[in-house]
Design brief:
InterPro entries: HTH_LacI, Lambda_DNA-bd_dom_sf, Peripla_BP/Lac1_sug-bd_dom, Peripla_BP_I. This is Transcriptional regulator, LacI family. The structure is a single chain. The chain folds into three domains: 62 residues, 434 Repressor (Amino-terminal Domain) (Orthogonal Bundle); 135 residues, Rossmann fold (3-Layer(aba) Sandwich), CATH 3.40.50; 131 residues, 3-Layer(aba) Sandwich (Rossmann fold), CATH 3.40.50. Helix content is 44%, strand content 16%. The strands form two sheets. Strands 2-1-3-4-5-11 form a six-stranded parallel sheet, with helices on both faces. A six-stranded mixed sheet has the order 7-6-8-9-10-12, with helices on both faces. Strand 1, helix 6 and strand 2 form a beta-alpha-beta unit.
């Protein structure tokens, strides 16, 4: 800050504890309030040196735009709402998703607001609240169903949104997804290459879109490699971990025990391993296990597991970019992307 700014700081109208405003920055820089406002918005007619000067003072003062004022002037909240189930996978999913979104929003005027909910309750409640209160300019949702009423409602209300997953309901909308069909097919292929013949799949809940994608890849793999399915009954990745462990132990002790298992969830895989070992079976010898994970940790505890990473941080970045672009009017069919599986561990060395 130059000498003139320092002198003005000594006579600053900002009282102790008072929130800095555009008027404060204008006083500190000797510029007009309109110039300060346009500099903070990166207006093309404001010089680079002036913009840097204004931003420096704003940062030193801890200036934040008043959202209520912004909304009154523009009708915008500068908020992106992430509606995320509190039951999402514990092993890094939520934090990585938030990190990815935040990395993109950091360079914009938008702020992230996390709206938690439980999937055991009506998933429409948080979306209706956002729509009825106008509390966000855009929304990101997960746990997508093939025919998702949240998607239909937001499309009808012209709310910009992006989904972590795909629908099958005739509505074109922004999304980012992981290719679970390709993952499960490649997992079956891997188990077939190890000589495994009896394969079990621990799937996501049947109500979600990626259940269908997973089953498609699984059934295609079984047919292509002439393998047999061992049913996991009603167990899914959202079954209580203790129940997954108990069911797996019983299954592995039975005459119908699989010699290969595929898991869609890293957290659930820990319970699978516990059940396998409780049954006296050895991972990598009696049974091979392939798992998807959202953070690299499974191979730290069991290097015998074959793992594929889903980069949830990347998903967060893609979703943030998609919803901002949709707010700016980009066509939804241009804002759709799918990540391919990336193998992080091919299991123990041969």
């Amino acid at each position: 800050m130059d000498d003139s700014s320092t002198k003005r700081a000594a006579k600053s109208p900002l009282a102790a504890g008072e929130r800095p405003t555009l008027k404060t920055i204008a006083y500190m820089t000797g510029l007009g309030i309109t110039t300060v406002s346009r500099a903070l918005k990166d207006a093309p007619d404001i010089g680079t040196e002036t913009k840097e000067r204004v931003r420096l003072v704003a940062n030193q003062l801890g200036y934040q735009p008043n959202r209520a004022g912004v909304r009154l002037r523009t009708g915008k909240t500068n908020v992106i709402a992430l509606v995320l189930s509190i039951e999402e996978e514990l092993m890094g999913f939520t934090s990585q998703m938030v990190f990815g979104i935040s990395e993109v929003l950091a360079g914009t005027q938008y702020h992230l607001v996390l709206t938690p909910h439980t999937h055991q309750k009506d998933p429409m409640v948080p979306v209706r609240y956002i729509l009825d209160t106008g509390s966000a300019d855009g929304v990101i949702i997960s746990r997508i169903a093939p025919d998702d009423p949240r998607v239909r409602l937001m499309a009808e209300r012209n709310m910009p949104f992006a989904t972590h997953g795909r629908t099958d309901m005739g509505i074109v909308h922004p999304y980012h997804d992981f290719d679970n069909e390709a993952f499960v097919y490649e997992a079956v292929e891997k188990l077939a290459s190890k000589g495994r013949k009896r394969i079990a799949l621990l799937p996501p809940p049947a109500t979600l879109s990626f259940y269908l994608h997973s089953r498609t890849g699984f059934e295609r793999g079984l047919a292509d490699f002439d393998l047999t399915e061992v049913s996991m009954g009603r167990i899914s990745t959202e079954t209580i971990l203790g129940d997954i462990r108990t069911y797996t132990e019983t299954l592995m002790r039975s005459a119908n025990a699989p010699d290969g298992i595929i898991s869609i969830s890293g957290s659930s895989t820990i319970a699978l391993v516990a059940g396998i070992e409780a049954a006296g079976k050895k991972l990598g010898k009696d049974v091979d296990l392939v798992s998807k994970q959202s953070a690299e940790f499974l191979n730290w505890i069991r290097p015998e597991i074959y793992t594929v990473n889903e980069d949830v941080r990347h998903s967060g970045r893609e979703l943030a970019k998609a919803v901002i672009a949709r707010i700016d009017g980009v066509a939804p069919e241009l804002l759709q992307s799918i990540s391919k599986p990336t193998w992080s561990s091919m299991g123990p060395k041969e």
